[in-house]
Design a protein that fits this description.
two-stranded antiparallel sheet
Length: 201
């Protein structure tokens, strides 16, 4: 009887060990896949647009890899450096006129920054301003989500500032699916709503 109980305990112990081994293996695979996605996104971005991300007129010199904790990763940072609403609307009006867009249709467009403030973009450099439609595959709503993900990855130390800038200045629309699924803070999903301080608009 004692031998039978000992054998049963041995079988149970082996089963538990196998279960824990499989669970740990699945966790390692999940972590490896997550890191691989980050590497692919960053690598693809750097191949597409390494130079554009370094154009100084698009960037805020106060934001460097060493200063991200005190700048873009600090809550409310974008609000402290953004121009006034009047200035922003004046920039938008000039761009609408330059592109021959009727002011009555202006509500369909967002004043975009090629490099968003929360990724180290200049808040007020004319070269950094652009117009994007709010809707659509290449629209501002999608770009805001991508921006929020990239910022979280930079602030979590999972991606360099330069790689994030290259990703957003490059062909971010082709990487939208990968970037939107990234969860560098362990809690974000692609159904989250990007806040104003995340998108830097």
């Amino acid at each position: 009887m004692k031998a039978r109980n000992t054998r049963r305990r041995g079988i149970v112990r082996c089963a538990v060990e196998r279960f824990e081994h499989r669970r740990d293996a699945r966790a390692r695979v999940a972590r490896a896949l997550h890191i691989a996605v980050l590497v692919l996104v960053a690598g693809g971005a750097m191949q597409r647009a390494p130079a554009k991300a370094q154009e100084r007129q698009l960037l805020d010199t106060r934001v460097t890899q060493q200063s991200v904790a005190d700048t873009i990763c600090r809550p409310g940072y974008a609000d402290t450096v953004s121009p006034s609403l009047d200035e922003i609307m004046a920039h938008k009006s000039r761009l609408l006129a330059a592109r021959g867009i009727d002011p009555d249709d202006g509500m369909s467009y967002a004043l975009d920054r090629r490099v968003p403030i929360v990724l180290g973009g200049s808040p007020n450099a004319l070269a950094n301003f652009d117009l994007l439609p709010w809707a659509g595959r290449n629209g501002e709503r999608r770009k805001e989500l991508v921006t929020a993900r990239l910022k979280r990855c930079v602030c979590a130390g999972r991606m360099s500032l330069a790689d994030a800038q290259a990703a957003i200045v490059g062909n971010w629309t082709s990487q939208y699916g990968q970037i939107a699924r990234m969860s560098c803070d362990g809690g974000a999903t692609d159904t989250d709503t990007a806040g104003r301080d995340d998108d830097g608009s």
